[in-house]
Amino acid sequence: MMPIRWRSHVSLHVRTIRADNPSPMRGDGTNTYLVGSRALLCIDPGPESAEHIQAINDALTHGRGTLAGVLLTHGHLDHAPAALPIHEAFGAPIYGGPGLALAHRTLNDGDVVPLDDGSSLVALHTPGHAPEHLCFFHAPTGTLFSGDLLLGHSSVLIAPPGGDMARYLASLRRLRALPLRRILPGHGPPIENPAERIEADLQRRIRRERQILESLADGRETPEQIAAHLYAHIDPSLRRAAERQVLAHLLKLVAEGRVARVEGDDTPRFRLRSTPNL
Predict the structure, then answer these.
(1) Which of 23-32, 92-101, 233-242, 243-252 bottoms out in mean pLDDT, i.e. has the lowest?
(2) Are 134 and 56 within one domain?
């Protein structure tokens, strides 16, 4: 069973339970957060893993608090499935973003979830990685629970159709305007330099878009061709993810009128509409 790490963030009490589901994209595993001192909120209970669910149950059963609610940043299989057994064990409602079928109660942008110390978490609709994605912001401490919008160990996969690059970049820019002091991500360690990290992720995506435009100008037409060029040394197990990431950029460029999708066979092909300012 993975260890439970206890942290106190100024006046925000947070307990972290890491699921034992490591992968190149998930880092050491999914972070589940128990927030509060007595009436606890469970953020992203994680995968349908008996060991991880037992760890959450143990933390709640042997602690001094009760479970007030389960908050989901999004519905992906490494974040959400454990919500149902946790709900069944403790009776706490499941909260999630618009369109998330698993949620008993929908949280819209700006909705407030109270904490037992009188402060609250504010739900921020931050689509891009997933349409329903939420972050949760604790203004008194400047703490953001970022789900998969920002990761502690790597960049985020944006994979269509659920992933949308334009919306993802808009969500990052929205977070950039917040007075953040610390980000607690869905995977990886805490991010202690939020402003620098958000800006770095934005600039990384801008550079990648420029490289994709250059690849189109050089005659490459498909996500597979472009990914093979830009990610030449990537682990083969991540090649498909790289191709989906390239596709997300291409679809953004199509929506902006900078790139055209070529009609024809079932293989997505793209070309420049004109010679853009690379």
Answers:
(1) 23-32
(2) yes
Residue 242 in contact with residue 159, Cβ under 8 Å?
A: no
Same domain for 127 and 172? Answer: yes
Q: What are the pLDDT digits (tens) for 14-59?
A: 999 999 987 777 778 999 999 998 899 999 999 999 999 999 999 9
Name the residue among 167, 117, 118, 171 with its Cα closest to residue 147: 171
- Nearest CA to 13 out of 36, 32, 42 is that of 36
Residues of the chain above pLDDT 90, percent: 83
Rg of the chain in Å (alpha carbons) = 20
CA torsion, ordered 87, 93, 99, 101, to nearest 10 deg: 30
What CATH number corresponds to the domain at position 250?
1.10.10.10
Domain boundary among 171, 192, 213: 192
Same domain, 133 and 36: yes
Q: Three-state SS string across 165-196, please? A: HHHHHHHHHHHHCCCCCEEEECECCCECCHHH
Do 28 and 114 have their domain in common? yes
Q: List Cβ neighbours of 71 (8 Å cut-off, separation of 6 or more).
A: 41, 42, 43, 44, 95, 96, 107, 113, 121, 134, 136
Q: 55: domain range?
A: 4-192
